[in-house]
Amino acid sequence: MTALEFGYAINNMTKSMKPFALRLTKDMEQANDLIQETVLKAFSNREKFSEGTNLKAWLFTIMKNTFITNYQRMVRRKTFIDTTENLHFINSTENIAQNSAYGSFAMADIVSQISKLDDVYKEPFMMHYRGFKYHEIAEKLDIPIGTVKNRIHIARKELKDALKIYA
């Protein structure tokens, strides 16, 4: 494959790379930068691409690895080394003290709202919360799996509406 053909094939793939880049970065500008960096790496390493293999998968792998490398580099920049004799590595973003009273109030409100749920919705919701799978709940309550899913969905919706102050 010539450099021109390779460049054309990569150019055709850039539109399909954007959703994946957005999912990784959660930011449009960073996604565009990631795509640009991926295309640059792919073009500069085109001799490593085996013709006849999946170009899209190769590009997505480059993108994922580039994102991971950039993320690790960013984390390293935010980490500083304590030069005392203990030689601890301290992450600078973990110096936040939180008030646990807020969590206690929130938990009390959540428990209160769950107790207000109709038993028809509360029982499948609590079973799902405790780790039961949908099919296990359906068997235990002797109801169809679709009904289980619907009741859990309704319970979540009611709780979300009742607890929107914490959103």
TrEMBL record:
Q: Which GO terms describe its molecular function?
A: DNA binding; sigma factor activity
Alphabetically ordered keywords of this record: Sigma factor, Transcription, Transcription regulation
- GO biological process terms held by the UniProt record: DNA-templated transcription initiation
Domain (RNA polymerase sigma-70 region): give its ranges.
20-73
> InterPro entries annotated for this entry?
RNA_pol_sigma-70-like, RNA_pol_sigma-70_dom, RNA_pol_sigma70_r2, RNA_pol_sigma70_r4_t2, RNA_pol_sigma_r2, RNA_pol_sigma_r3/r4-like, WH-like_DNA-bd_sf
SUPFAM superfamilies assigned: Sigma2 domain of RNA polymerase sigma factors, Sigma3 and sigma4 domains of RNA polymerase sigma factors
Per its UniProt record, what Pfam families does this chain match?
A: Sigma70_r2 (PF04542), Sigma70_r4_2 (PF08281)
Q: Using the record's annotation, list all stretches that form the RNA polymerase sigma factor 70 region 4 type domain.
A: 110-159
Organism's domain of life?
Bacteria
Return the similarity comment.
Belongs to the sigma-70 factor family. ECF subfamily.
- Record's protein name: RNA polymerase sigma-70 factor, ECF subfamily
Q: What broad taxonomic lineage does this protein's source fall under?
A: Bacteria, Pseudomonadati, Bacteroidota, Cytophagia, Cytophagales
